[in-house]
Amino acid sequence: MTCRQPKVRFAAALLMSASAASAQSQIQAPVPLPIPNEVPGHDQKQPPIEPDRVDNFKDLFARLRACWRPPPRSKANPENITVIVSFDRKGNILGRPRITYESEQATDNDRILYRIAVMETLQRCAPMPFTDSMAGAVAGRPFAIQFRNLNHPPKPVEKRVWLTPKIL
């Protein structure tokens, strides 16, 4: 019986507090919540997003594309290159960008010139002017960014699979 008595006392105390709270809520008048227009210093209109701010991924890649200056064709053959880069909340480059892909037909000179062009592009664009919401979305996340030379696409190399010998 000693185990049941504390449970009964607790249940009785809970019922008493609930009935007291309901009686008290009937006595007090409800407090009206302020309407957003009535709050001092609150404008109904949201501030417009500045066109110079990066608010989504489309804007991010468009800004990188605007900063991209490939080497002239007289100095290097066209090449496609992919780099992985991360940004912090303030838009600065986080860590070191890493090149993960370069065109197969590129020479060493082409690769060096394109690597320099990619790093100059990232330096030109950094720090990225992220909005607060975009800064939270991209902070620390890696992006694989492809830099393609669309003006002068490389000649496709024909590969005939049916002529390659197979050793069983």
**What is the strand content?**
5-15%
- Rough shape? globular
What is the total tally of β strands?
A: 3
Q: Number of helical segments? A: 4
Query: What's the architecture of one domain, going by CATH?
Result: 2-Layer Sandwich
Low-confidence stretches: 18-44
Distance between the termini: 84 Å
Structural class: alpha+beta
CATH class type of one domain: Alpha Beta
What is the CATH fold-level name of one domain?
Fusion Protein Consisting Of Minor Coat Protein, Glycine Rich Linker, Tola, And A His Tag, Chain: A, Domain 2
What is the residue-mean pLDDT, rounded to a whole number?
Answer: 74
* Biggest sheet descriptor: 3 strands, antiparallel
Strand order of the biggest β-sheet: 2-1-3
Order of helices and strands: HHEEHHE
Description:
The structure is a single chain. With 168 residues, the protein is of the alpha+beta class. It has a domain at 57-147: Fusion Protein Consisting Of Minor Coat Protein, Glycine Rich Linker, Tola, And A His Tag, Chain: A, Domain 2. It is built from four helices and three strands; from the N terminus they run H-H-E-E-H-H-E. The chain has helices at 4-27, 57-67, 108-125, 132-138; strands at residues 81-87, 93-102, 142-147. The model is unreliable at 18-44 (pLDDT under 50).
